[in-house]
Amino acid sequence: STLGLWPTFGLARWLFPARREVALGALAIQALSPQAIFMGSTVTNDGLVTALSGLVLWQGLRVAYGPWQLRHAIWLAVATSLALLTKYTALPLIPFSLFCLLIALLRTMRRPEMRRRTLTGSLAALVGMVSLSGWWFARSQATTGYWATRDQETLWWLRQDFWQAPARFITEPAWRLLPSALDYGFQTYWASFGWGNVGAPRWVYTLFAALTLGGLAGAVWYRLRQRRESSVSLPLGAFTLLAVFILLIVALPLYRE
Question: Which of 72, 214, 222, 255 has its CA 20 to 30 A from that of 232?
Fold first, then answer.
């Protein structure tokens, strides 16, 4: 659980390199949140998959919108692979990682000298990702007949529709459940305890919602007024990618319902 604070601090420092207090504030909010304290007191795979997911988000954004460096692509591949080995619910990290690599490739298409480096590095990251985690799914398939042993009906439906009727990805899900899925994801991120997901009083979530909205508003305001202060330029696509990350996290429960 404590390891999960590192990506938060690193991402905030990357976004706002001249404002150390922003990174420290983000670190404090996460470290002192009820869910982080609870997860730090338990022995489960949830703490590790959360930390690795944060690392995927941090390195993914650096790959997609920062200067291309192979080490960030390798970090992205390693974190994604380890998250997949930790818990199957990390499956949504696969399309997110692919999106980040694709954006990096598209950004270098008009620069031949960078295009080759980016393409080679992206392929190396993909090979590493398959090598590190692919064996586990191959072993599961060989020993149980399933590449993942939970939510078989949902995963089978997704796999069948991907090849036979891809349009059903849009038409079939119970989109009416999306608001409740996002609300559930928000609650479990900040305060949800025990196997039965015992929640906190509603005012707790209202408080953290206000902090979240205030943080987003402050980030947008700062980026608009202090663009030259940062060494990276985050276009609208970066915020879109953050939204995609959130939606992918709740995608599996949404399709399951």
Answer: 214
pTM above 0.85, yes or no: no
* pLDDT tens-digit series, residues 83-97: 989 888 788 888 889
Q: Are 220 and 16 in contact (CB under 8 A)?
A: no
Q: How far apart are CA 81 and CA 75, in angstroms?
A: 10
How far from 251 is each of 173, 181, 206, CA to CA, in Å? Answer: 9, 9, 24
Which residue carries 């995963």 as its tokens?
A: 155
CA atoms of 32 and 30, how far apart (whole Å)? 6
β-sheet bridge partners, residue 199: 192
Position 160: which residue type?
A: Q
Structure tokens at 206: 């209202």
pLDDT band (50, 70, 90) for residue 76? very high
DSSP 8-state symbol, 111: -
Query: What letter would DSSP give residue 167?
Result: T
The residues, any chain, with a CB within 8 Å of residue 78's CB and separated by 6 or more, are 128, 132
